[in-house]
Amino acid sequence: MRRQGQSGAWAEAAFYVGLSFIIPVSAVAGYFAGAYLDRHLNTGSVLGAIGAVLGAAAGIMDVIYTVTRKGKSAGNQ
């Protein structure tokens, strides 16, 4: 039998594991978008690098926003 708090702990763990994928996936998506533009604009690999940095920055901002929002909602309960 499961205890009542056990499923909540698993849900919390799944939330934070999901957060760990946001930054790398954003960076890879930014890289591929930049590489696509590099191919079509013949700019070498400049836009790929810029896309990866911008993607990582967007991922970091998303993680901060998500954790802050979750912290505020946890404080209201």
Q: Main traits of this protein?
A:
single chain; 77 residues; mainly alpha; 3 helices; 0% strand; elongated
Describe the 3D structure.
The radius of gyration is 18 Å and the shape is elongated. The chain has a domain at 21-71. It has helices at residues 4-19, 22-41, 46-76. The mean pLDDT is 89. The chain has 77 residues and is mostly helical. It has three helices and no strands.
Structure, briefly:
The chain is mostly helical and 77 residues long. The protein is built from 3 helices and no strands. The chain is elongated.
Largest sheet: none
Strand residues, percent: under 5%
Low-confidence stretches: none
Q: What characteristic shape results from the CA principal axes?
A: elongated
The tally of helices reads 3
Please trace the helix and strand order, writing H or E for each element: HHH
Distance from N terminus to C terminus (CA atoms, Å) equals 27 Å
Q: Helix/strand/pairing class, anyone?
A: mainly alpha
Mean pLDDT: 89
Let me know the number of strands.
Answer: 0
**Share of helical residues:** over 70%
Oligomeric state of the chains present here: single chain
Radius of gyration: 18 Å
